[in-house]
Design a protein that fits this description.
five-stranded mixed beta sheet, 2 domains, Creatine Amidinohydrolase, Chain A, domain 1, six-stranded mixed beta sheet
């Protein structure tokens, strides 16, 4: 097991790529990127800048990377070394007046800058800067725009090593997922419930060198109709012949820098009735339409955005008469956190206009949730150079769980 201290260090260990940041700013026609933090609220800032926070970040700091020229920072005198690891002049302040004057110096001559801000909190994953700080910057005559597209480039594009860690996690998780359905089948006659399956999966993850922050979801019948149900000893129900079973599991290699693999499969204890099979087929085909929308766009060199992928899946489910039962987005960005900071496949909870960029990894997981059961089918999609594809095994038929 990796120690918390090592994990903390690894989160912020990358060096700032100043040249790449400035190239991105010029491409986006921005004057600069203003980073801000207080009490380590914005982990994105530390990761992009390659700064490891000290034991105490009790005072505000600012760091401005212009599209041209040398960066510069603003630090409190009692934490003056906070930004020493990155280049540029550091202006020191103590009073609030000095802070505001110093910020004006940082931004002098700039008209349009990016911050970890999202208009109307449309993309909460990058909405790290408080409204008051945005107001302070705007009062200086500076237009604040979202850094969402920039964050994608620096946070949501996997390195070769990260991609390989995802693939290896996928191979291990897929083996455990298949084993979990066998475990249910073997225990069906003697008695098995949701928590027993959950605990079995957790043990298998640990023995396979995998880490997860929560889960897995094991949902039987009506519990599968609750998208975020997780079994507890109080809620766990027995799995019996004639039951529908949903397994949603996510894990990554238990080492710093690894990337999650996140899937959902479903099965039936015995021969599924026609209604269950039909709902599964609708969800499966919606999943495939969303995946193909990305695969085709990437192959043709067309820009495709998160909301368009959601539209592809949602349109199919709505046409089948189950639009009101698809109550969440089609997919989410995946990275070192299971819900990453890149574009989500979403035109329901948000209207995500971010581009799906090379190096991006995300889930596609449409669902139909009814009172007595629910189907979700989840795969992971990676966008490479001119090609997009799923990264693990893909469910085509309901798993038949027979003892």
């Amino acid at each position: 097991m990796v120690s918390p201290a090592k994990i903390w260090s690894a989160l912020f260990s990358n060096r700032m790529d100043l040249k790449r940041i400035q190239e991105s700013l010029r491409r986006e026609k921005l004057d600069g990127w203003l980073f801000f933090d207080h009490h380590v609220r914005d982990a994105l800032a530390y990761r992009v800048l390659g700064v490891t926070p000290s034991g105490h970040v009790s005072r505000r700091w600012y760091y401005y990377v212009p599209a041209e020229g040398e960066p510069r920072g603003l630090v409190h005198r009692i934490e003056a070394k906070q930004l020493d690891a990155i280049p540029g002049e550091k202006i020191a302040y103590s009073s609030w007046r000095e802070q505001q004057d110093g910020l004006a110096k940082l931004l002098k001559g700039s008209k349009r800058v990016a911050m970890q801000y999202s208009a109307r909190c449309a993309i909460p994953y990058v909405a790290m800067v408080d409204a008051g700080t945005v107001e302070l910057v705007r009062d200086l005559g500076v237009t604040v725009v979202t850094s969402a597209e920039l964050i994608q480039e620096f946070e949501a594009c996997l390195s070769a090593e990260q991609y390989e860690s995802h693939l290896e996690a996928g191979r291990r998780v897929d083996r455990i997922r298949a084993g979990a359905f066998r475990f249910i089948a073997e225990k069906l006659a003697g008695g098995v419930d949701e928590v027993m399956v959950r605990d079995w999966v957790r043990t298998q993850f640990r023995d396979a060198g995998l880490f997860t922050d929560s889960g897995p979801i094991v949902g039987v019948n009506a519990h599968a109709g609750d998208p975020h149900y997780e079994p507890t000893p109080e809620t766990s129900v027995e799995i019996r012949p004639g039951d529908f079973v949903l397994l949603d599991m996510w894990a990554k290699l238990d080492r710093p820098g690894s990337v999650y693999y996140d899937i959902t499969w479903t099965g039936f204890c015995g021969d599924p009735p026609e209604r269950v099979s039909r709902v599964f087929e609708i969800v499966r085909d919606a999943r495939d339409k969303a995946v193909n929308a990305v695969v085709n766009a990437v192959a043709e060199g067309r820009v495709i955005r998160g909301f368009e992928v959601d539209d592809a899946a949602r349109g199919h489910i709505s046409a089948a008469g189950f639009g009101d039962n698809f109550v969440h987005r089609t997919g989410h960005s995946i990275g070192e956190e299971v819900h990453g900071s890149g574009a989500n496949m979403d035109n329901l909870e948000t209207h995500d206009e971010r581009r799906i960029v090379p190096g991006a990894l995300f889930s596609v997981e449409p669902g139909i949730y009814l009172e007595d059961f629910g189907v979700r089918s989840e795969v992971n999609v990676y966008v490479g150079a001119g090609k997009a594809s799923t990264t693990g095994e893909v469910q085509r038929e309901l798993v038949r769980i027979t003892g």
